[in-house]
Design goal:
This protein has helices at residues 14-26, 37-47, 63-73, and strands at residues 6-10, 30-34, 51-54. It is α/β, with parallel strands linked by helices. The protein has one domain (9-73): Response regulator (Rossmann fold). A 3-stranded parallel sheet has the order 2-1-3, sandwiched between helices. It holds the Pfam family Response_reg.
Length: 80
Protein backbone atom coordinates (compact mmCIF):
# COMPACT_ATOMS: atom_id res chain seq x y z
CA UNK A 1 0.00 0.00 0.00
CA UNK A 2 1.32 3.42 -0.97
CA UNK A 3 1.53 6.23 1.58
CA UNK A 4 -0.78 9.20 1.12
CA UNK A 5 1.26 12.40 0.81
CA UNK A 6 -0.56 14.76 -1.58
CA UNK A 7 -4.19 15.72 -1.07
CA UNK A 8 -6.20 17.79 -3.54
CA UNK A 9 -9.00 19.69 -1.78
CA UNK A 10 -11.72 21.10 -4.02
CA UNK A 11 -14.45 23.36 -2.63
CA UNK A 12 -15.89 26.71 -3.67
CA UNK A 13 -16.07 27.89 -0.05
CA UNK A 14 -12.81 29.51 1.07
CA UNK A 15 -13.31 28.67 4.75
CA UNK A 16 -13.82 24.95 4.02
CA UNK A 17 -10.69 24.80 1.85
CA UNK A 18 -8.61 26.62 4.46
CA UNK A 19 -9.88 24.47 7.33
CA UNK A 20 -9.23 21.17 5.54
CA UNK A 21 -5.89 22.31 4.16
CA UNK A 22 -4.68 23.47 7.57
CA UNK A 23 -5.86 20.32 9.33
CA UNK A 24 -4.14 18.02 6.84
CA UNK A 25 -0.98 20.17 6.64
CA UNK A 26 -0.63 20.02 10.43
CA UNK A 27 -0.61 16.23 10.10
CA UNK A 28 2.24 16.43 7.59
CA UNK A 29 0.33 16.15 4.31
CA UNK A 30 1.09 18.22 1.22
CA UNK A 31 -2.17 19.97 0.33
CA UNK A 32 -3.29 21.64 -2.88
CA UNK A 33 -6.57 23.50 -3.26
CA UNK A 34 -8.95 24.43 -6.05
CA UNK A 35 -12.20 26.41 -5.92
CA UNK A 36 -13.95 24.68 -8.84
CA UNK A 37 -13.89 21.50 -10.87
CA UNK A 38 -12.13 22.99 -13.87
CA UNK A 39 -9.18 24.20 -11.80
CA UNK A 40 -9.16 20.86 -10.00
CA UNK A 41 -8.73 19.02 -13.31
CA UNK A 42 -5.62 21.07 -14.11
CA UNK A 43 -4.14 20.46 -10.65
CA UNK A 44 -5.03 16.76 -10.83
CA UNK A 45 -2.99 16.44 -14.03
CA UNK A 46 -0.09 18.53 -12.70
CA UNK A 47 0.40 17.20 -9.17
CA UNK A 48 -0.96 13.62 -9.40
CA UNK A 49 -2.54 13.68 -5.92
CA UNK A 50 -2.83 10.56 -3.79
CA UNK A 51 -6.38 11.50 -2.71
CA UNK A 52 -9.00 13.99 -3.94
CA UNK A 53 -11.62 15.49 -1.60
CA UNK A 54 -14.24 17.32 -3.65
CA UNK A 55 -17.45 19.25 -3.05
CA UNK A 56 -20.32 18.37 -5.38
CA UNK A 57 -21.98 21.75 -5.92
CA UNK A 58 -19.57 24.32 -7.34
CA UNK A 59 -19.54 26.96 -10.09
CA UNK A 60 -17.99 26.46 -13.54
CA UNK A 61 -17.77 22.68 -13.29
CA UNK A 62 -19.49 20.74 -10.51
CA UNK A 63 -17.85 17.95 -8.56
CA UNK A 64 -19.67 15.13 -10.35
CA UNK A 65 -18.46 16.23 -13.80
CA UNK A 66 -14.94 16.79 -12.52
CA UNK A 67 -14.84 13.38 -10.81
CA UNK A 68 -16.06 11.64 -13.97
CA UNK A 69 -13.38 13.40 -16.00
CA UNK A 70 -10.68 12.49 -13.47
CA UNK A 71 -11.85 8.88 -13.38
CA UNK A 72 -11.69 8.65 -17.18
CA UNK A 73 -7.95 9.43 -17.05
CA UNK A 74 -6.87 7.85 -13.78
CA UNK A 75 -8.60 4.99 -12.02
CA UNK A 76 -6.40 4.37 -8.98
CA UNK A 77 -6.60 7.68 -7.13
CA UNK A 78 -9.31 7.63 -4.42
CA UNK A 79 -11.88 10.34 -5.18
CA UNK A 80 -14.22 11.53 -2.41
Amino acid sequence: MTAINRILIVDDEDNVRRMLSTAFALQGFETHCANNGRTALHLFADIHPDVVLMDIRMPEMDGIKALKEMRSHETRTPLF
